[in-house]
Design brief:
- By secondary structure, the protein is mostly helical.
- Helix 10 runs antiparallel to helix 11 and helix 11 runs antiparallel to helix 12.
- The protein has two domains: 216 residues, no CATH class; 202 residues, no CATH class.
Length: 419
């Protein structure tokens, strides 16, 4: 009876998250053919570079203390971790502002990018607060709030991008849309949490915050570096393409990532959020979480395989038909990258298992190997071969081998709780 109730809760919670994610993703996907005919690969390239820098800052903005909120053993610790995450976010935002100022005044050679880098500190603050509050809502199973956040973010972001395109403000429509949507949605999440059954207040002393920081210091000491390695694995391709090739190539690749991430993140994100909560709960009860991991792998395989097959067979034709002929090469990128997305989609929901079981150090070592594979493929394809499609082919092959091993390692080690 209890197992049946747990399955029912899982399905209900997953449905709530998937519905919100689907609504948010549908808005962006439905408008993408419109955006691709107003905004050129150059604008999308600028957005890709901006977002890759932002994602790097988002990884370090809370020093990963936000990810300790869910597995924290007491509600008091969770509250202190939330307050600590907010404080660290403010410090990180200030450092980001200083860094952007120095870069723009003394180092920048790209006037277009420099103009928009001033928005980075603002988005760093919004993302840090959002990530902390998201984990707080997840701990309390407020999945409706999470879904509402995603929908509001999508409506505002895509609405502004569309309005800017129709009014002819092409040069800043994409970036302003993403920034405004992120800020507004973060505020919506905050006010809704405060009206929910799990509002938060900051009444912990600095002494308590320091004690909590030391108690969970494995997150900034180990998990942070793991997250940086994962981030570089994704965004490193954009950094290298920017260095070796033109911003148009970056824009073509950025469009591919934007389109592919939508269906893969649609359910993968939702499965991951619920999986993390359930896995942490079962592990703390002393249960073997391997069966939970196996179910996650099977579910993600069933969801992702049809998408991958379609992309491999018809990727370039789909992109040319839906987004316009100038985006056909993005479809070629999609065809090549599809196997990597498939395996990464399987890995993503279970990627926090080593955090729960205390195996972050070993996972960090594996991530270094993955980054070495990425760097090798970029240098080989970009420097010696000077062929961006070959860059992506080599990258995909090496990453597929890497991800197969990582998935196998996570599954086999999950029952042990030790490295």
């Amino acid at each position: 009876m209890r197992g049946s109730a747990l399955r029912s809760d899982y399905i209900r919670n997953l449905t709530i998250l998937v519905t919100g994610s689907a609504s948010a993703q549908f808005i962006g996907l439905a408008l993408s053919p419109v955006f691709s005919r107003y905004y050129s690969p150059h604008e999308f390239g600028l957005l890709a570079v901006f977002m890759s820098i932002l994602s790097a800052l988002s990884v370090i903005v809370c020093l990963r203390y936000e990810f300790a909120i869910i597995p924290a053993r007491t509600i008091e610790d969770a509250g202190a971790l939330l307050q600590l995450s907010f404080k660290v976010t403010l410090i990180t935002t200030l450092l980001a502002l200083i860094g952007v100022t120095i870069f723009n005044l003394f180092l920048s050679t790209n006037a277009d990018l420099s103009r928009w880098l001033w928005l980075l500190p603002v988005m760093t603050l919004a993302n840090g607060l959002y990530q902390a509050m998201l984990n707080w809502a997840n701990r309390h199973k407020n999945y409706k709030l999470i879904s509402k956040y995603r929908i509001v973010n999508s409506i505002i972001t895509n609405g502004i991008i569309l309005a800017a395109a129709l009014l002819g403000y092409i040069s800043f429509g994409l970036l302003v849309g993403f920034v405004t949507g992120g800020i507004c949605a973060m505020l919506v999440l905050y006010f809704n949490i405060q009206k929910s059954n799990a509002p938060f207040s900051f009444n912990n002393s600095n002494t308590k915050l320091m004690e909590t920081a030391r108690k969970y210091d494995v997150f900034p000491k180990v998990n942070l570096w793991q997250a940086i390695a994962d981030m570089l694995l994704i965004n490193g391709v954009i950094y290298f393409l920017t260095f070796f090739f033109s911003q148009v190539v970056v824009g073509l690749y950025g469009m591919t990532m934007r389109v592919l991430q939508a269906p893969f993140n649609l359910i993968g994100y939702s499965i991951g959020q619920i999986f993390l909560q359930e896995a942490a709960h079962q592990f703390h009860e002393g249960k073997n979480i391997q069966p939970l991991i196996k179910k996650s792998i099977i579910r993600t395989c069933v969801v992702a395989l049809p998408i991958v097959i379609i992309l491999v067979i018809t990727g370039p034709y789909i992109f040319a038909f839906v987004f316009g002929e100038q985006w056909r090469e993005s479809g070629e990128f999609a065809r090549i990258l599809a196997p990597w997305f498939f395996l990464d989609f399987i890995r993503t929901p279970i990627s926090q298992v080593p955090v729960i079981t205390g195996q972050q150090k070993r996972l960090f070592t594996l991530s270094i190997v993955g980054n070495l594979f990425m760097i090798s493929s970029m240098i080989l394809g970009g420097f010696w071969l000077n062929d961006y499609l070959m860059v992506v082919r080599i990258f995909t092959i090496l990453q597929c081998l890497y991800l197969i091993y990582v998935i196998y390692w996570i599954y086999t080690k999950a029952a042990l709780g030790k490295s």
